[in-house]
Amino acid sequence: MKVILTEEALSRLEDVVDFMLFEQEIPYHIVERQNEKLLLAALNLGKAPYQGRKEPFLAESTIGYRRIVVDHIKIIYYVDENNLYVTDFFDSRQHPDKMKD
Concatenated DSSP letters for 30-75? Predict the structure, then answer.
């Protein structure tokens, strides 16, 4: 199955990376490794698209969002007939209402 990373997801991933680098002051090489780990996990979703659980904080949506968690980052996605769309990289330490922004 083809995996599509939305612009919003890539923007949110960049926010996560910036937070780790500049707010948490995590060394660049560790952040780079984490970024690669997240991207690889997202791209591998195409091999088993229904492995993620349904995301309860987005349950009111008719889209059927699912999620996997890599370390403390939720990778939010949904599946249609031909594609899997990654829509968000969400730090699960944040309040879940921020996921709806």
Answer: HHHHHHHHHHHHHHHGGGSTT-SEE-GGGTTSSS--EEEEETTEEE
Instruction: List the CATH number of the domain containing 81.
Output: 3.30.2310.20
Token pair in block for residue 63: 């889209």
pLDDT tens digits along 19-51: 999 999 999 999 999 999 999 999 999 999 999
* Cβ partners under 8 Å of residue 89, min gap 6: 9, 12, 13, 16, 38, 42, 73, 74, 75, 76
Instruction: Give this prediction's pTM.
Output: 0.91
How many domains does the chain divide into? 1
Q: Give the span between the Cα atoms of 41 and 77, in whole angstroms.
A: 12
The length of the chain is 101
Task: Report the C-alpha gap between 20 and 45 in whole angstroms.
Answer: 24
Host domain of residue 12: 2-100
